[in-house]
Write a structure and sequence with these properties.
Its EC number is 1.10.3.2. Keywords: Copper, Glycoprotein, Lignin degradation, Metal-binding, Oxidoreductase, Repeat, Signal. The chain is built from 7 helices and 34 strands. It is mainly β. The protein has a domain at 397-567: Cupredoxins -  blue copper proteins (Immunoglobulin-like). The chain binds 2-acetamido-2-deoxy-beta-D-glucopyranose (8 copies) and copper (II) ion. One 2-acetamido-2-deoxy-beta-D-glucopyranose (NAG) binds at residues 297-298, 315.
Amino acid sequence: MLGVRFLFYTALVLPALAGPAALPFEVIAGENGELLARQATSTGAAATSTRVPDSACTNGPLTRACWQSGFSIATDFDAKLPPAGKVVEYNLEVTNTTMEIAGVSRMVQLVNNQYPGPTLTANWGDTFVINVKNSLSDNGTSIHWHGLRQLNSCQQDGANGVTECPIAPGQTKQYRIQCTQFGTTWYHSHHSIQYGEGVVGNIVINGPATSNYDVDLGPMALTDWFYDTAFALNYRVMHTGIQAPIPDNGLINGTMKSPDGTKGSYNKVKVQKGKKYRIRFVNTSVNQHLVVTIDGHNMTVIASDFVPIKPFTSQYLALATGQRYDVVVDASQAAANYWIRADTDTACSKNANQGNVKAILSYEGANEADPTTTGITPPMGCADMAVTPYVSNTVPQDQFSSALQYLSMDFNVSQTVKGPLVQWLINGSGIDVDWSRPTLQYVIDSDTNYSDDMNVFEVGETNKWSFWIIQSVQSDPVEVPHPIHLHGHDFYILGSGPGVWNGDSSGLKFVNPPRRDTALLPGKGYLILGFPADNPGAWLMHCHIAWHVGQGFSLQFLERKEDILGTIGDLSSFNSGCDSWKKWWNGPHPYDKDDSGL
Ligand SMILES: *[C@@H]1O[C@H](CO)[C@@H](O)[C@H](O)[C@H]1NC(C)=O
Ligand SMILES: *[C@@H]1O[C@H](CO)[C@@H](O)[C@H](O)[C@H]1NC(C)=O
Ligand SMILES: *[C@@H]1O[C@H](CO)[C@@H](O)[C@H](O)[C@H]1NC(C)=O
Ligand SMILES: *[C@@H]1O[C@H](CO)[C@@H](O)[C@H](O)[C@H]1NC(C)=O
Ligand SMILES: *[C@@H]1O[C@H](CO)[C@@H](O)[C@H](O)[C@H]1NC(C)=O
Ligand SMILES: *[C@@H]1O[C@H](CO)[C@@H](O)[C@H](O)[C@H]1NC(C)=O
Ligand SMILES: *[C@@H]1O[C@H](CO)[C@@H](O)[C@H](O)[C@H]1NC(C)=O
Ligand SMILES: *[C@@H]1O[C@H](CO)[C@@H](O)[C@H](O)[C@H]1NC(C)=O
Ligand SMILES: [Cu+2]
């Protein structure tokens, strides 16, 4: 094992870091098979740090694989927790206001009155303490920390109707989250369609990386953008038919020019020739599938969602809603301005401003004029990119056939007093959570009488693997791929494809399959996933197209329910949150719940 990791590291990663000739640092294997690297001893072309030998393996521009003694990019963070770090505290306030974004003014709901909300930053091993105040007058809220594993802490997951009651207007909830992973993610409201109004922000957890870079430019959130409010659009989507509304524009890092070019501004990313930059792309869309390119530049992709991957070079990135790719861009071209493009993947989505959603990569010394560069034509196909996790884990193939469980995905239109009701069904039922009686309350009450529309599936024995196939019906009239997101775990993606799975497991990937928290279920196709039961809790798994989860496309895994109360500890915040919520919701409030609540 030790030898394998050592060889693997030297053979595959170092050349990508340093070019074919020089290794930028000496690599040795530690006692427990972990990787240790010493500061650079050679003069690589892009060397910009001090090259002081450092026996502790300190993370720096030339030694991004390092973290701190005994912890590095070779650590399996699902198996081994980093030492507890510091407490990082943030106050977030959800507000309701009117703001001009990309040249057009509209009613928005924001975090701390900014779009995107503040970026939360911590180091691997730190604990976030986040106080969320609901300053809306007419909505609850509930903030989900997308992709954070929430090991033994499901009541911090921010999934209203599952792990908490919504935070009532005027109330504050404190979330405590341990950073057991590192990389890039986002937080967003899970209260109906509310994140589409602007209740989103990025999260950066610093840690080691599979490729070197000089400067971390931080997150670049990409989203579709609508001039109508998300609640209004959601109502139309639910009751008038199957076509998703077409976004009016897209935003990169919260900004863009208006489609006529007269208002708004492009996000500008400043770089210096000769340096390498890490950019953290996050797709925070409601509906759009995006393809990102940078004119004249390739990207070295180093992480997909929270999982470090074997670095590979790509001319484009394809991101479904909820997905992230961390990349390194080499500023090696002539000092000028270049377009960064976030095109809509036309194989499954549309944008009224198609082809024009851009930002600028601007070299120091370039003039102020907009770029005149031309881009490539990236492949469109609304498919996940092929990735290989850096730390190789194997799925127990011998347990697969007996543990595989089947979930159908279907589409249904029924008639209601409000007109047609469009729903997505999991095994025959669209989810509809009760905000006032979350699943965790059932666990506290030892009540197993779950209603059908809770879509509860129990997951059993400690550390035993469960395997799931989601098979969509062949009569699906929409045929778009669905980004499936799991809370509480990174799932292992054993296979996916169009049509009906033929039951042959020989084509599935059991040795180091991709693992991440969001993966595509192809339109009219299937997706086969697995994960070990190592985290007691109630965990949603849902389509991250916000219209679709509103229309019922979600289920919840109730994992080791008898172990949940023993892990999550004090319930006073859960209880007082529900008391405040019920008092508000049962009183006069201007709006009703019309969708799944998620
Ligand atoms: C936001 O403010 C508008 C205008 O005052 C109001 O109509 C709307 O209900 C408010 N929304 C929320 C969620 O508080
Ligand atoms: C939330 O507030 C918006 C107005 O800002 C309203 O349209 C929507 O119906 C409200 N939803 C709920 C469930 O209160
Ligand atoms: C995104 O925007 C913020 C606020 O304007 C800025 O501080 C940050 O540098 C931008 N990030 C990138 C990657 O351009
Ligand atoms: C974001 O995800 C949506 C939905 O899957 C997709 O349509 C859109 O193209 C993605 N955006 C980017 C920039 O990848
Ligand atoms: C980017 O990659 C393509 C395809 O491998 C290659 O043809 C091109 O020269 C590369 N561009 C740069 C700037 O390295
Ligand atoms: C599906 O729609 C039909 C009407 O077309 C309705 O009778 C049935 O109850 C619906 N099924 C579900 C699970 O909502
Ligand atoms: C889903 O429904 C199918 C068909 O009724 C059934 O065979 C299967 O066991 C159900 N799945 C689960 C996880 O209960
Ligand atoms: C279970 O819940 C249903 C409503 O969903 C209720 O009608 C039934 O009485 C409950 N059964 C028990 C045993 O509590
Ligand atoms: Cu989510």
